[in-house]
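Field reference: sequence -> structure
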Amino acid sequence: MKNNLYSGKVVYLSTYPPTECGIATFTQDLAWAVAEHTSTAPAIISILQGENDFSHPQEVELTTRKNQLEDYIEAAHFANQNADVISVQHEYGIFGGKDGEMILHFLEHLEKPVVVTLHTILYEPTYNQRKILSRIGQYADRVVCMNSLAIPLLEEIYGIPREKIEMIHHGAPSKLMESKEDTKNQLGLQGKIVLSTFGLINRGKGIEYAIEALPRVVKKFPNVIYLILGATHPEVKKREGERYRKYLENMVAELGLEKHVRFVNQYLTKRDLIRYLMATDIYITPYLNPQQVVSGTLAYAMHFGKVIISTPYLYAKELLRDGRGIIVDFRDSKSIEEALWYLLSNPWRRYQIERKARIFGEQLSWSNVGKEYARLFDSVSSFLLAS
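Structure field:
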């Protein structure tokens, strides 16, 4: 019998599978992780990013068209009738209107407590972006960030009171029972030193700098292979097709790295993603945006106890401090090359980093994160009942 930390009904507003985006996957994982600590199943209001031409899981009880204002008001009425607490996943791009401002119409029609999880917090927002997030902070009973370094930004830039802000880590899935070597064998990677980057591919990933770092490395360590895991982001594909991937493929050919770089061009199932992560020796996030406050891929890699090389975006600074990874410079393939050379030449140092990452990463399990959200939902509901 499970230990219920919250007895109320949670309704989630977000994108949701089968939509292919990180926030959709996050919401699905969060909803079922919280359900392990509540007495009711989750209900989802799914924000449609395009035509409604696919079927939805049974927990999706309402769909909202991204750019239809009346749908947000209908969604608020549904939440008022069915929820004890509402969980909103916020990123500017998933909602309609300029900078996703239609989310404000949903929030202003709510009559139930609402917790907003922030997936993007900008250092230098436009006037409109700052106004939207400040108003979200006014409507919300709590806002959740996934990085303690973002708390001062929320206070100083967006004027959100500290007592409204909660820090809860991004969750990560459970590991498989197989060993790293068994998983490598299953994937045809036996005998390889596996580097990887995963996620929906776009220019902000900075993958070209990791590729440029490889020529000297593979001469010294010829069993190195770099896996670039994931499909092109759907919105990027609409705008420019596979232009960025073709650019990366051409770079691989020009550098003679065909035997050392492998593209897995598909939207990976969670099980496949876990298998590739388990086979990984060194995980690389050469991302280009210093303001990035959270990365699900980095949380996954940390939870799996991987040696991580990353540029110093805000979330990497948080997760990799205290020797839990290696920080390299932005847009600097030489810096990545030196980090790889150092790690591949020092197995003991790799072991030390893995151990620190594994210990820290335990708290990132979805089981732990779901428990923290269930407690937060209970706290918000109890506070409002008492006031």
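Note: Residues 148 and 167 are 6 Å apart (CA to CA).
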